[in-house]
Amino acid sequence: MEQSVFPKYTKAWLPYAAPAAAPSTPEEAARAELDNGLAHYGFARPVSLKTESLGEGYRIDASAEEIVIYGQGAGMLYGAFYLLRKIALGQEIVSETQQPEYALRMLNHWDNMDGTVERGYAGRSLFFEGSRFHYDPERLRFYGRLLSSVGINTITLNNVNVHPPAQHLIDDLLPEVVKIADLLRPYGIRLLLTVDFAAPTYNGLATADPLDETVIQWWKDRTAAIYQVIPDLAGFVVKADSEFRPGPITYGRNQAEGANVLARALKPFGGTLVWRCFVYNCRQDWRDQKTDRPCAAYNTFMPLDGQFDDNVLLQIKNGPVDFQVREPVSPLLLTLEKSNRALELQLAQEYTGQQIDLYYMQEMWQEIFDVLPRGNISAICSVTNLGRDENWAGHDLAMANLYAYGRLCWNPDCLKDDMAREWTQLTFGRNCAAVDEIARMLHSSRKTYQKYNAPLGIGFMVEPHVHYGPNPEGYEYSLWGTYMRADRNAIGIDRTAAGTGFTAQYPADLQKLYEDKSTCPEEMLLFFHRVPYDYVMEDGRTMVQRIYDDHFEGAEEAQALLESWKKLENQLPADVFARVLAKLEKQVVNARNWRDITNTYFHRYSGAEDAKGRVIYP
Ligand code: GCW
């Protein structure tokens, strides 16, 4: 292994020394973490570990001087990390029992075997380079510790767009996958393999038609062979019939017919088939006013509710379009009744600043859970924000998102607490003088970003392909179904009953809320409605004036984030300070570009002058 490719990496929120030896079981890992962690934090009470079968949960008995953590396997390790976290945060240690809310707490890497990462903003892949596996085992152990310390228990290694030679991860390259599974197993982490629906055709079959007997048998045989060497494999993930990927529709079958064949191959081994619902027409014509992209997932999957096998998990993006800066919750998450559902989030900041701009996600997730009834989903997944960069996520502060994400998967109630503050204390020390300021910056970051980005629920005003930086009409005449149709009078698409009818996909209460301009949350006004520039908002401003104001404010707030950071120079490690400073300087430039290009764009169309007479370039 060429170690020089992997020079160093930070300890993120685990500041104590990593155990020297690789553990072979989670119990061993738990003891090693405790030994190093308790010494680091100078904790005086004795702590022992005792076996008790509580699934992935654990029980802490703090009634005597000696604290006892009861658990088994990963449960014991989670208990150890939990205790260490409480100690690090200076919280009172009490007797209690904890169980995770969701059994599958997943992280998806969109890594390609050439070493690139699709929508990756933190350097190259942690797993691959030059079309082969290429990694630093020590770093992957650290990665395992990080994930396990927040309860993430399942990962995919390779991109849902399966690019060669990754289609062979399930056959020729399987022995290499086994090594990663072995390395991460002691941290309670299981692998999911991202497979190509057309895999049988890469292996000599004439078709991948899911109803063809030879195809059915091929999946059964291949799956059995995989379980021989990875008996605890969590299952498969498939992106089918989406953005040019093959799927059942390619063969004239529906999504359930396709998913069930793979699910039945996994069933004897207890595996889960994770089937993505990101299916839409990506060859749309902008002249077509009827097809409306947000309607797509619901239209494809709702009619099939009840037809998916019980080990199929439908993985649904949080919004109905595609991880835009502001979207309503996907109606499919709220309306499917007879299918297992997983919520899919995106830590990778594809549309939310690409780990250059600060964008902390806790409040966004809270808004999702505000409308999502507790039992509606049975698993959570997120696209990761990690790569080979020294600080893991490119932007040091973006690690707060990964931390909060893991905590959310374990129990969404954590969103009521200040995860930003917790992360900051764990990372920089409980008494670090910068804690308050960093937590404040994180919490304000999303509003700031939204102010200078695409306004009021409109998405896709970005540079095509890269998705960073403003380009109001970058996607306006494209094939991707991403239009806002601004003219001199109005902006937006009418998605109410009088328009494309998208609002009808929601349960009655939300439908009512979104249907009417006067009750629709203003942040999403232009998502649901076509609105004239002179429409009067709640506070009396016109819609276009609100856009101008937001963009001026957003750029000012980005500048203020930079000024806040500069004051922390002596309170933080020099390398962290310098890296984040460089990011914030870029963010300021980005925010100004968004401000000026967006304001000019709508000024040119509307002809409306800024009420405050600020500079809008002609
Ligand atoms: O948002 C789009 C991204 C693609 C991604 C796709 C998906 C992996 O731009 O890069 O492909 O979503 O979620 O499948």
Question: What is this structure's SSE topology?
Answer:
Layout: H1 26-41, E1 47-51, E2 58-61, E3 67-71, H2 74-88, E4 96-98, E5 104-111, E6 128-129, E7 132-133, H3 137-150, E8 154-158, H4 174-184, E9 190-195, H5 213-229, E10 235-238, H6 255-266, E11 272-276, H7 296-301, E12 312-317, H8 331-335, E13 340-346, H9 362-371, E14 379-383, H10 399-410, H11 419-428, H12 435-452, E15 490-491, H13 508-515, H14 525-528, E16 531-532, H15 543-566, H16 574-606
Parallel strand pairs: 1-3, 5-8, 5-14, 8-9, 9-10, 10-11, 11-12, 12-13, 13-14
Antiparallel strand pairs: 2-3, 2-4, 6-7, 15-16
Helix pairs in contact: 1-2, 5-6, 10-11, 11-12, 12-15, 15-16
Key phrases:
single chain, 618 residues, alpha/beta, Chitobiase, domain 2, TIM Barrel, Alpha-d-glucuronidase, C-terminal Domain, 3 domains, eight-stranded parallel barrel, four-stranded mixed β-sheet, 16 helices, 35% helix, binds 4-O-methyl-beta-D-glucopyranuronic acid
Kindly describe this structure.
- The longest helix is centred in the C-terminal third of the chain and has 33 residues.
- Helix 1 packs parallel to helix 2, helix 12 runs antiparallel to helix 15 and helix 15 packs antiparallel against helix 16.
- This protein has 16 helices and 16 strands.
- The chain starts with 25 loop residues before the first helix and ends in a 12-residue tail after the last helix.
- Strands 5-8-9-10-11-12-13-14 form an eight-stranded parallel barrel.
- The chain is α/β, with parallel strands linked by helices and 618 residues long.
- It is globular.
- It has three domains: 73 residues, Chitobiase, domain 2, CATH 3.30.379.10; 314 residues, TIM Barrel (Alpha-Beta Barrel); 119 residues, Alpha-glucuronidase, C-terminal domain (Alpha-d-glucuronidase, C-terminal Domain).
- Helix content is 35%, strand content 11%.
- The site of 4-O-methyl-beta-D-glucopyranuronic acid (GCW) has 12 residues, from loops.
